[in-house]
């Protein structure tokens, strides 16, 4: 049965029971960053708030539970090498957001679902949550300031930069590269190049 969508204060209380303090603080940071980006690029601010807050709502679940929730929801798990917490928590997060937090908005669910891998033909909210997860105030890595500046100037360029960094990291650490990340890169690069030609 579908839960009714909670108030934000209720969501925060529930989230605290699903994750540790560090992950919770990160979620608040993504929420606030998503709101800022939504205001900058004309997206629905309320949807950005909710998607940012809930993007990691499944991150604390054990791998076996993630797999079970995915199977119950009819999510295609793909090859074994992609059945990791890091790659499953997005799609399973969309299930948890729907079942536990009462979210039925398809844009919010899509943004939660693809916030780790990206995907082909990302919508505005998808890109905002993908990027907000990357550059929220608690993040600290060498290129983060450059990415934050880019995020305020050109959303697509910043998403491309984040995708490039992710792909490089995956390759440098001998991990399996998810096909959806390749699709996201190819699609975003094509769009970016077309925009430049038109511009």
TrEMBL record:
Gene3D superfamilies linked to this entry: Hypothetical protein af1432 (1.10.3210.10)
Matches recorded under InterPro entries: Diverse_Catalytic_Enzymes, HD/PDEase_dom, HD_domain, HDIG_dom, YqeK
SUPFAM superfamilies, A to Z: HD-domain/PDEase-like
Reactions it catalyzes: P(1),P(4)-bis(5'-adenosyl) tetraphosphate + H2O = 2 ADP + 2 H(+)
Cross-referenced Pfam families: HD
Single GO molecular function: nucleotide binding
EC number: 3.6.1.41
Keywords (A to Z) from UniProt: Hydrolase, Iron, Metal-binding, Nucleotide-binding
Domain HD as annotated: residue spans: 23-138
Protein name: bis(5'-nucleosyl)-tetraphosphatase (symmetrical)
Species assigned in the record: Caldicoprobacter faecalis
